[in-house]
Amino acid sequence: MAEREVTNVGIAGATGRFGSLVLASLLENPDIKIRGLCRNASKLDNQHTQSSQLQVIEGDVLDPSILAKFVNNLDVVICAYLGDNDFMVNGQKALIDACEQARVPRYIASDYTFDYTKLELGEHPAKDPMKIVHEYLRGKQHVQGVHVLVGGFIETFWSGYFQVWNSEERSLVYWGSGEEVWEVTTYADAARYTVAVALDGSVVGLQRCELPLMALPPLVHSFSS
Questions:
Q1: Is residue 64 part of a domain?
Q2: What's the whole-model pTM score?
Q3: Could you read off the pLDDT of 35-58 as tens digits, one per residue?
Q4: Which residue has the higher pLDDT, 166 or 84?
Q5: Domain with 137 in it
Q6: Is 194 part of a structural domain of the chain?
Q7: Are strands 106-108 and 171-174 parallel, antiparallel or unpaired?
Q8: In 10 A of CB 92, how many CB atoms?
Q9: Helix (H) or strand (E) holding 154
Q10: In a domain, 2, yes or no
Q11: Positions of E strands within the chain
């Protein structure tokens, strides 16, 4: 794909945890015009809303008229949606259709995870939406898909969600030999990487966020089971 200058960037889901970090990173580039899509603009940081770089579109993110207004004249759309499987599929499909209609060149899907392309549908149900959206984008004529793979968010990894880290015992519980590499990235680093991808108009397809690996601190004891 020939490089295209990127000056107008859209963020769908601009009020979420990841979307807010993407917005903050984009605002570090004074020549970039940003358009944010959200259901409730009051959730945006006041510091962000005061920027002349930012235009906010508020409303039903499934409404075709709202989406058409949002994507108009954008060079790239960054999707930062987070929701159930139905929303992650149908919400993104509606946004992709709007991008296709407006001939937005690139759409950065709300992936931000490990390489799900190696999975079969149903093998990891939480990742099915990403596979469906990946395939959906491949069928479009005017908008090309970009998929940022970060491994996993380290903040979530250390929480109780994965049931891997026991903060009381300061121990890890996992399957395997203990030599496997765990690919994790902070929200902030993933956001900065996504912005770098967005601002390079030549980048399409799968993009792996590869950062230097950090050794676990000595207070952590690993147990396999």
A1: yes
A2: 0.84
A3: 999 999 888 887 788 889 999 999
A4: 84
A5: 8-153+184-210
A6: yes
A7: unpaired
A8: 23
A9: helix 154-157
A10: no
A11: 8-12, 33-38, 54-58, 76-79, 106-108, 144-149, 165-166, 171-174, 205-208, 221-224
Asked if residues 200 and 152 have their Cβ atoms less than 8 Å apart, the reply is no
Does 119 have pLDDT greater than 80?
Answer: yes
Q: Residue 18's domain is classified under what CATH number?
A: 3.40.50.720
User: Are the C-beta atoms of residues 102 and 71 closer than 8 Å to each other?
Assistant: yes
Question: 88 φ, ψ to 5°?
Answer: -65, -25
Cα→Cα distances 190→42, 62, 199, 209, Å:
25, 26, 14, 7
For 54, half-sphere exposure in the C-beta direction (CA atoms, 13 angstrom radius) is 27
Domain count, the chain: 1
| Per-residue pLDDT tens over the stretch 53-112 | 999 999 999 999 999 999 999 999 999 999 999 999 999 999 999 999 999 999 999 988
In-domain check, residue 138:
yes
Residue 53: closest CA among 27, 75, 79:
27
